[in-house]
Amino acid sequence: MKFRLSEISRLWPIAKRITGEKLVKCVEWLFSSDKFRKDVFGTHRRKRVLLCYLPEAFAKKELPKYHSNLTECYSVAKVFDSLGYSVDCVSRTKRGIDYSPYEVVFGINGNAFFGSFAASNKPLKIFYSVGAHTFYSYMATAERNLDFFRRHGKWLLGSNRYMPGDGRNYYEALFADGLICLGDSFVEEKYITDNVRSEHCRSLSAFYFPVACNPAKKDFGRCRKNILWFGSSGLLHKGLDIAIDFVLENPQYTLHVCGGSSREQGFWNYYSPMIKGRDNIHIYGFVDIESPRFREILGECGILLNPSVSEGGAVSVLNVLGNAPMFPVYSKGTGLDLDGVGYEVCDVTYDSFRCALLDIEKLPDRTVEERAWAAYNLVKEKYTLERYCAGMCNHIKDIIEKNR
């Protein structure tokens, strides 16, 4: 069959569009997390568990360190593997799953885990929360915006972190057979407050990635005037405004900002005119913790500032403190128990953190240095991946035993 040139030219845009649409769909599928990986370790066992989290954790030879979630997912799978289960892993967004082959479903909030509640075979359900109760987080992040509005007369609603648009997260946490929440007792209490079934709730400490070996001693007389803020999206939720406002008010300090989502245009549109041209505020954007730049910043700074209202054991804090001595100034909402080596602030307001930083200013250099090294040594001992895996294993075994 032959086509005239005029016919080909007429059909070409249509063919190009159809081919392009298919190509786009193919690329979207390749990079989407809406996938299903069966028997990730190839064990072919009778007992099976469905892990509703991140199938991408099993597609890489070496897991990246830009976030802890892939390592968490892989570690949970290894725990179930050690307990004699074959592990299937599905994206948390997946729908229409057949749960009948599974004795256990483990996962974070989403379609995949939520669907297991309607499964006719009634598998054991273990909910993994990577932060405090969503009701608490919603209230806390809203109050942060109110604190900002009272100081600046402006709402920045795009720089908070809100709970999901429905009540599934509450349902999952309340009615799962077991709940493991990432963080310390503060995070666990936020579930117990709204959940009378407190006996099925367990907390688990987060972990850090060791990337800097043998950190050099620092001149704390100098570097204590350099403050590091290390975080991601939700810039009011994580208190970047507090850090910037303090340094604007106290120009004897220098602020180093690692991370800070560039997508939050409302935040940056407001602050850019204030910080433009100032040599005591450095915005680096995303910084790879395995890069020389990260190690340079660690060597430059003496104070870590984290005014976040709600975290699941803030890994960003741990990645800093576990790789260099630094005096931590942080909120209870970070979900970390640092045994008093830093300065824990109860109320996440500008005034509370301002007072904390000015209190620290009165301390001798020697004291700041000693507590910075104490924080470094504590994190290296207490917040390791090995302890995370051991704690996860104990919690999972306990939940399974109690629900037999």
Folded structure, characterized:
By secondary structure, this protein is of the alpha/beta class. The protein has two domains: 36-134 and 162-207 and 385-402, Glycogen Phosphorylase B (Rossmann fold), CATH 3.40.50.2000; 220-382, Rossmann fold (3-Layer(aba) Sandwich). Helices cover 42% and strands 15% of the residues. The chain has helices spanning 5-31, 69-82, 111-115, 134-152, 168-175, 185-193, 220-223, 240-249, 265-275, 292-300, 315-321, 350-361, 365-382, 385-402; strands at residues 36-37, 48-53, 86-91, 104-107, 124-129, 178-182, 201-204, 226-231, 254-259, 281-285, 303-306, 327-331, 343-345. Strands 1-3-2-4-5-6-7 form a seven-stranded mixed β-sheet, with helices on both faces. It has a six-stranded parallel β-sheet with strand order 10-9-8-11-12-13, with helices on both faces. Helix 8 (240-249) links the parallel strand 8 (226-231) and strand 9. Helix 2 crosses helix 14 (385-402). The termini are far apart.
